[in-house]
Predict the structure.
Amino acid sequence: MQIAGREVQITNPDKVFFPAAGYTKGDLLDYYLAVAEGAVRGVSNRPMALKRFVQGAGGEAFFQKRAPANRPPWIDTAVLSFPSGRTAEEIVVRDAAQLAWVINLGCIDLNPHPTRSDDLDHPDELRIDLDPMPGVPWSQVRDVALAAKRVLDDMGLTGWPKTSGSRGMHIYCRIERRWTHPEVRRAAVAFAREVERRAPTIATSKWWKEERHGVFLDYNQNAKDRTVSTPLHWDEVPDCVPEAFTLATVPARFAAIGDPGAGIDAEAGSLEALLELAAREEADGLPDAPWPPNYPRQPGEAPRVQPSRARARSGAVPPAAPGQEAGPTGRRRTTVPLLEIARARTEKEAREGLERWKSRHPEAVPPLEPADVLVDAMRGRSSAWYRIRVNLTHVPADKRPPQELLEIDYDPWAAYRGKR
């Protein structure tokens, strides 16, 4: 195909990528070309990891940080350094031809970093990821988004909302390139806590899943090496439904109203108000929130345990499943009665294991609430694997099953240890 003055090779355009709807890889490419102006604006000059679905949306995805060696000479790249000390040369998209080349690799969604390739140490984007717990209705996600907007307005920042393409919503804010990744994350933590203070019944900033309720404001999307969809106007948020935005409907919407995020680059704001709030919290004794486990311990970070000292003193480390070295919380103490059910290569296999566990323990199932089933997408070397845990808090003590052998015991690291 001739795109943006370049010849882009497209392979297998008739391959079905979305079996339920029947959309093909060619349909996906047509969608991205129809909204290319907005899509390129969102990722322009940003290194990105490639999340590739080579077998389509129903297949297993894998992450490819390093740019393919056999790429065309007109594909741009940037070299990033990660907390582990390793480096990777990642793809940088600046035009529709480069965008189409990425989509042809099987990328359904785009995962750009919050930095531009000409200054990888200073983000120009504050990201707010609204992640609802199981059972939380979409209306509550919208309510938290509007609460977040009010906090942003008070902090002098302009937020640009969009659906996430899944169950949540994202809000992006352009910021001046004056702060480092840890400083931007510090501002995001302060922001999440402020939204929780204002809307405590529907929003949470708690990092540990077993402590969350409502909609989680994920501040760790602003940690370096974190990546994260239909842009919206704020007056659409109160009534929007994510099911309305599909490969079939969004191109016509884009043609009719343009890109609601078109003005984002002209609205770079300051983090000073949020960082002042963070400083006040620290002065009051509130420590930094936990970082992801693949990061070294950070200055001022709270212990990576349950934040309540009283609960930590009275809690215990839940036992591991037979044959396992670590239990459902690793080495972390908790008072929450947790069981680990499965570790699986795919979410489907993990949920099948959960159903088997339920069939063996029918007395424990009725009291469980949707948020009591914790489904974790865990990072492997190049792809995600899935863990399921169950919080038995709502199950009467005399009906709580013990920790048993895992229904599925997948080891994502076995191949790298030479076991198989």
